[in-house]
Amino acid sequence: TTGLGAYKNALILIDVTSGTGTSPTLDLFIDSRIDGTSTINIAHATQMTTATAYALALTKTPSAAQVAVAADAGAGTVRAIPWADDLRVRRDIAGTSPSFTYRVWIMGIG
After folding, report:
1. Category of 60 on φ-ψ map: left (φ > 0), alpha (ψ -120 to 50) or beta
2. Contact criterion met (CB below 8 Å) for 55 and 12
3. What is the Cα–Cα distance from 3 to 73, expressed in whole angstroms?
4. For residue range 1-21, what is the model confidence (pLDDT) as tens digits?
5. Distance CA 100, CA 51 (A)
6. Which residues of 13-29 are buried (b: 16+ CB within 10 A; e: fewer)?
7. Which tens digits make up the pLDDT trace of 26-46?
8. Cβ-contact 9, 60 below 8 angstroms
9. 38: phi then psi, degrees, rounded to nearest 5
10. What is the pTM of this model?
11. Which candidate, 107, 14, 32, places its Cα nearest to that of 69?
């Protein structure tokens, strides 16, 4: 989703309506492009295995601490770091014959 650079906060809504297979897992990541090509990971939703819903609240207000961004954030982590004009949803699905049906909404706030 582009056009989010002017917002101070964002809300990500995740709605998983089904998960099938043997031991299926769904990891959703929120990334931002920082220089036109390179991306950094802003958030990693809690790993999902069945129908569920989550909300992730993002803020551009940086934390006081230094934040390493060379690797993905751990599951259930939202990094308080600025993002650029676009956010990308990336997924990792694992298990034996896994399948998920889900929707993601991104809303800019403020």
Report:
1. alpha
2. yes
3. 24
4. 668 878 889 999 999 999 999
5. 9
6. ebebeebeeeebbbbbb
7. 999 999 988 878 899 999 999
8. yes
9. -80, 145
10. 0.89
11. 32
